[in-house]
Amino acid sequence: MRNVIGICLAAVVMSVMMAGCRVDERENMDTSAVGREALTVYQVTSENVLSPVLATLDLALKADMYVKADEYERYRLENMYFEDYRMMFYDGRLEVVDYGDVFFDGKTIWEEGASWQVACRGVESDIVCTAPGEWDVNLRLLYTELPVSYYSVDSMRMHVSVDIDSSGTAQMYGNEYLYRMEASGAYAEDQRGGIVVKVAFETVSPTGAVCRYAGRPESFHFFDGGFDMHMDIVGNLSRSEDIKVELSPSISSTLITTRYKGRVDCW
Q: How many beta carbons lie within 10 A of that of residue 153, not counting itself?
């Protein structure tokens, strides 16, 4: 994913060059690069920051399925969600070898007050059930290194829920949970040449999320909501910009609308 943020910085460089090295002279900017920059910042935030954290809750819910299941059902769940991994169940712990660990507290993760510790590809969080079908995902910042290690999280707040029908069954999209996420936080990336890119983000409304596919369980698709974002670039190309992202309700063909530097672009 290094090339993703590289696109963003390439757009920055292009914008600065075409503006005569004056970043406030926006009328001279390459508008296609401007739109691409906004999209790239959103993609990095959703794919490299939010997805790995949400994956800890997703792993907890699937681990809950696993520990409750009989031998045949466990085999089915392994093939459905973790066909590339080996599961090892100990007393109070489920290890998904080469992927993550779940530590239980004696309660099901669906029980109010339950608190599980989850580690997933270097990301660690405490999952706390605040109500049936609702959880706080409390990122353990001191113990976390994102899978894409040149990003560092400065702060993170995440509350996630699932819709439960009258029979007590959670709403699913195929075999995956359908989440509603409220989140805010900030992260940074150190670039070559002393440039630091800092991004703060916040959901503008509860935003939908679903695991993209079981073969890569830490990757999520976001829809039906949006984000207010702010990017600060510190260094030779210093800038401070607001970005707004709107996501259409469709899961299969989500329209991404970015509002950035007076432009509105759809992707």
A: 18
Give this prediction's pTM.
Answer: 0.88
Strands (DSSP E) contained in 16-169 are 87-90, 93-96, 100-103, 115-120, 123-131, 134-139, 151-161
* Cα Rg of the chain, angstroms: 20
Locus of tokens 């600060």: 232
Helix, strand, or coil (residue 29)? coil
| Sign, CA torsion 75/101/59/150 | negative
| Terminal-residue alpha carbon distance, the chain | 19
Per-residue tens of pLDDT for the chain, all 267 residues:
444 444 444 344 334 323 333 333 344 445 678 889 999 999 999 999 999 999 999 999 999 999 999 999 999 999 999 888 999 988 889 999 999 999 999 999 999 999 999 999 999 999 999 999 999 999 999 999 999 888 999 999 999 999 888 887 898 999 999 999 999 999 998 776 677 899 999 999 999 999 987 556 678 999 999 999 999 988 777 889 999 999 999 999 999 999 999 999 999
Q: For tokens 């031998």, name the residue.
A: 71
How many alpha carbons fall within 13 Å on the CB side of residue 157?
A: 6
CB count in 10 Å sphere of residue 175: 11
Label residue 222 exposed, middle or buried (CB < 10 Å: 0-12, 13-18, 19+). buried
Q: Quote the distance between the C-alpha of residue 95 and its chain's center.
A: 22
- Please, are residues 101 and 94 in contact by the beta-carbon 8 Å criterion? yes
